[in-house]
Amino acid sequence: MIKPKDQVSTDVGTEILFENDHVRIWDMTLEPNESSHYHQHLHDYFYIYTTDSHITAHYDDNSEIAQGYKKGFVNFSVVGNGIQHHITNTGDKLHNQIIVEIKGASASPKPLTPENNGRFTKK
User: Fold this and answer.
1) What is the gyration radius of the CA atoms in the chain, in angstroms?
2) Taken in order 79, 85, 86, 89, is the CA torsion positive or negative?
3) Fewest CB within 10 A of the end CB: N or C in the chain?
4) pLDDT tens for the 123 residues of the chain, in order
5) Other residues' Cβ atoms within 10 Å of the Cβ of residue 21
6) What pTM was computed for the model?
7) Residue 4: helix, strand or coil by DSSP?
8) If DSSP codes are grouped into helix, strand and coil, which group holds residue 99?
9) Neighbours of 81 (CB within 10 A)
10) Ramachandran angles phi, psi of 93, nearest 5°
11) Is the distance from CB of 76 to CB of 43 less than 8 angstroms?
């Protein structure tokens, strides 16, 4: 269930798989038409899709990005002072991804354009 924007969580996935002083690794699983809670990324992070997925990302400025992704899609995000959003599985199959937060200060004082490996599908 999506939390209101005034209840922003720092839980960026559905389950913590591993954590130490340097990284926190999350699992994120969403059923078709299910949305993550509204959350804020405070650490630079990368994620890997373990399923083919169709996802819509909803950002705090009311913008959206809808895209299809192939299994093995990898994205690296530099968050600056934080990125707030939630995602929705707009596909008809289970979505799963692994999120790796790199603990410590961001590599930049402002968010940078994400880098990825280009494994997109047509939406």
Assistant:
1) 14
2) negative
3) N
4) 444 556 789 999 999 999 999 999 999 999 999 999 999 999 999 999 999 999 999 998 889 999 999 999 999 999 999 999 999 999 999 999 999 999 999 999 999 999 999 998 865
5) 6
6) 0.91
7) coil
8) strand
9) 11
10) -130, 165
11) no
What is the identity of the amino acid at 59? Answer: Y
Q: Is the CB of residue 37 less than 8 Å from the CB of residue 9?
A: yes
Per DSSP, 106 falls in state: -
Contact between residue 98 and residue 47 where contact means Cβ atoms under 8 Å apart: yes
Place of tokens 């289970």: 94
Tokens found for residue 90: 């707009």
Distance CA 84, CA 18 (A): 23
Tokens 């004082």: give the residue: 109
- DSSP 8-class letter at 10: S
Contacts of 44 (CB under 8 A, 6+ apart): 76, 77, 78, 79, 101, 102, 106, 107
